[in-house]
Design goal:
This protein is α+β, with helices and mostly antiparallel strands and about 120 residues long. The protein contains two helices and seven strands, in the order βββββββαα.
Length: about 120
């Protein structure tokens, strides 16, 4: 059975004769029913609003920061696509965005904690 996907999607074929699994970003593939399975992952760009309220800097000054980040799974780089499939396969775009947002919030808080705002230098 033939399957196709658009340029904003990748397919992963696993099962019989597919070790490691075959990853196709924006293309088509033949899948043997019952002995192989196909999964899809979105390659759409996600925009995330990263907010950190009242994070204390190195000198104890509370700062609130809002940042915007855009995230995209790179479909043409096979290593990056394989890593993204390992982490995000079977998850919706909302779940992927939530995981990325929590990671970015943690990094943003760590950066703010090392700032020298309002202190004696």
């Amino acid at each position: 059975m033939f399957y196709t996907c658009g340029p904003n999607e990748a397919m992963v074929v696993s099962g019989f004769c597919r070790s490691p699994p075959l990853m196709i970003a924006g293309g088509r593939v033949f899948v043997f029913p019952c002995i192989q399975q196909i999964q899809r992952i979105s390659l759409n760009t996600l925009t995330l609003n990263v907010k950190s309220d009242k994070v204390y800097t190195r000198h104890g000054v509370p700062i609130s920061v809002t940042g915007i980040a855009q995230m995209k799974i790179q479909g043409q780089n096979k290593q990056m696509l394989a890593a993204a499939c390992q982490m995000f396969m079977g998850k919706s775009e909302h779940e992927i965005a939530q995981i990325a947002l929590e990671t970015l919030e943690g990094h943003q808080r760590a950066i703010i904690a090392h700032l020298n705002c309002g202190g004696k230098d």
